[in-house]
Automatic annotation (TrEMBL), chains A, B:
The keyword Transcription regulation applies. Residues 3-57 form the HTH lacI-type domain. It comes from the Bacteria. InterPro entries: HTH_LacI (IPR000843), LacI/GalR-like_sensor (IPR046335), Lambda_DNA-bd_dom_sf (IPR010982), Peripla_BP_I (IPR028082). SUPFAM superfamilies: lambda repressor-like DNA-binding domains, Periplasmic binding protein-like I. GO terms for molecular function: DNA-binding transcription factor activity; transcription cis-regulatory region binding. This is LacI family transcriptional regulator. The lineage of its organism: Bacteria, Bacillati, Actinomycetota, Actinomycetes, Jiangellales. Gene3D superfamilies: 3.40.50.2300, lambda repressor-like DNA-binding domains (1.10.260.40). SMART domains: HTH_LACI. Keywords: DNA-binding, Transcription, Transcription regulation. The keyword Phosphoprotein does not apply.
Amino acid sequence: MGARLKDVADRAGVSFKTVSNVINNHPNVTEKTRQKVLQAIAELRYRPNVTARSLRHGRSGFLAIALPELRSPYFAVLASEIGAAAKREGLVVLIEETFGERDGERIALEGLASTLIDGIVFSPMATPARDVAARLDATPMVLLGERAHPAGCDHIAVDNVRAAREVTQHLLDIGRQRIAAIGAERGSVTGGLRARGYRQALTAAGIDVDPALTVSKIGYDRAGGASAMAALLDSGTDIDAVFCFNDLIALGALRVLRERGVRVPEDIAVAGFDDIEDGRYSSPTLTTVSPDIPFLAAEAVRLIVRRLADPDAPATDVEVPFTVQVRESTAGG
Amino acid sequence: MGARLKDVADRAGVSFKTVSNVINNHPNVTEKTRQKVLQAIAELRYRPNVTARSLRHGRSGFLAIALPELRSPYFAVLASEIGAAAKREGLVVLIEETFGERDGERIALEGLASTLIDGIVFSPMATPARDVAARLDATPMVLLGERAHPAGCDHIAVDNVRAAREVTQHLLDIGRQRIAAIGAERGSVTGGLRARGYRQALTAAGIDVDPALTVSKIGYDRAGGASAMAALLDSGTDIDAVFCFNDLIALGALRVLRERGVRVPEDIAVAGFDDIEDGRYSSPTLTTVSPDIPFLAAEAVRLIVRRLADPDAPATDVEVPFTVQVRESTAGG
């Protein structure tokens, strides 16, 4: 049904080769000829057959990122950093939001785009490890996070247990003893790991883990943090600090503490996880675990490029460095 | 070089048709056969030829969104809402971050992905209207915002002049007279429109527009808002309100006002634009212009679907409804 290259050449009154030169941005085309060809292309609604071109080169030049939630500033920045790293390798990034649902994640796994993309960076939320391992696609893939991590896959993650232990230790170091934890959701692998680090720090300090101080079954967002903080305050439990399993939860908690007239950090110190920009400008600014996102992004692209060059390269596990950024929410302001 | 469907069939010891059924998720395949085929696919690194499939159906099922900045919560939420609206139409969204640069935007315009996608939603920042009009691609496209808006394109935008006028009017209504404006950057069409609305409201109220109250040449982010607010305070100019041209600028300004001990809204009232979630949880919460993003997203997808059905449909301009959300930063807290 569509116009062919030859139709464009006829319409513009130029050779087949000239049309091809315009499409491929060849410098040896005068602006006048270029405009004539562009006009013919527009009039005929011609679509250059990119697939044929990419198959000639053996690569499409597209890298896909499948992420659960773009509304989460953490994932938005991660996607943006991977885009910047991919650009340095001449790859263009296409982002797909899975909403953390199986249906969305099937696309990453079943290779709907497999002839269109050179690689995929996938942060699975809903897909079990065995299904990731059995995916219907041979496109090079790097897995992010610790939810579904089958053997034999390239994989990048923060050491969540250690990071949670260190930020909890910081709360202990400033003299807090009744430290609550928000975010240990059932079914969340990452939440489970952060809860483990929290418990390890308390136990090492000789403090019993009080189940009344752990709030789960919330969303990993501001609204979830706000309702969890309200529930903790309403319970009447004695609290002098809260470790929130991400910054959005912490920002929701900060808001409720302000509404209730609770001073941060004097009455309750607050720490988060992710180091999103919001927490650097909030009042008070937010103490948090800061993973090295540019490092993560560069490694993700490096592993894809490596596997494109050598499909049989050994599977690699990369650990993302992090620091604990101490700000007003635990250090006075 | 790659394995073919026949190779997979041979390896799995099944028919060509059975492999095709597995790839297309046909229900009439036993789990055992499915696993056998999946294993053969994995071992042979077979990539199903999706392009051939999509050409058979005449559609790829992919909708591209080209946006300047995913780090901006406004664009992240917009992308997510378009994704949700597209899903209801059976379309999968691929997002491309252009960084607001010509190079990134060329991809949207020159149709690199034209055989791969059914439509594109494009928010141009760096590309002049004449280049958008002359794009080398006949894929249905909807333009967002008011930067590059050639005649004959489907187009969706907020009435920025009216929205800026209304939020400035709100600052006048609460008795403010020395209202600063941050964000009227040279070369920013949107910034220019918001500055016009701001001036219209002042003039209608019989207040002279004081150039000392307008700060431009900043980034549209928290850091830009912080430095602009600091510059305004350092200038010694008398100010009792600030209209920031987006919420990120306002959040940066709020942070500086807190650091300087300026009370919001008692000393200086602050208003933003976009209604991102950050401003609903900040301290104080942020008064802002709230555009109807779900409406915008649904209209963008509707216009693409309409143009797929009828390439000659008349170009449509859609105006996005908005409200002014009054919160603590202008109403006491």
